[in-house]
Write the C-alpha cells for this entry.
Amino acid sequence: MISPDGIVIDAKSGVSGAGRSAKLNLLYTEIAEGINAYGVGSHRHMPEIEQGLSDASGTEVKISFTPHLMPMARGMLSTIYVALQPGFSADDLRTALAEKYAGERFVHVLAKGQTPHTRHVRGSNHALISVHDDRASGRAIVICAIDNLMKGASGQAVQNLNLMMGWDEGLGLGAAAMFP
C-alpha cells in the first residue's frame, strides 16, 4: 500500500536514545527547554531501517530519517510520512495494520483520530500506532510511540529471547524497572 519512494521519518527521542556517555550535548542544561536534530542524513540506524523495509516490501527502499533529541529521559515518537500506492487510502492502511497486529500482545493500532503519546508507553514494551490522512492527496501520516529503553532496546531483546526459546512472549516484561 505504501510507495517505497519518498518515506520520511521524523523521530523524537528522549536523551537515553543518545546513550549514557558524558557528552556536553547530553547535559541537562544543554537539552532542557529545547529540541535539536542529530545524525541528519547519516544516522547509524538508517541502514537497518532500510534493510527491514526492503525485506518487508521485496524492493529496495531508501528513506529520509532525522532523529531529534527531546528534553525527556526516555521515549520515542516517530512521525512517518508516506506516499500511498494508487487506489489506497489512509483508512485502508490503518485497517491493514490493525488486522496485521490484531493478535499481537505489544503492538496496538489506535482508532481513527487518536494519536499515541510517549507517556502512554513509558516503562512498557508496547508500541502504539496511529494512521492519519495527510492533507496532500495520496499521502498518509503514521505515528508510533514506544519507550526506547523497552520496545526499542532491552524489552525487545527479552521478547525476542522468549519467542526463540518457546516461552511466553511477555515473560519478564510485566514490571519494568524505571531507570532512568
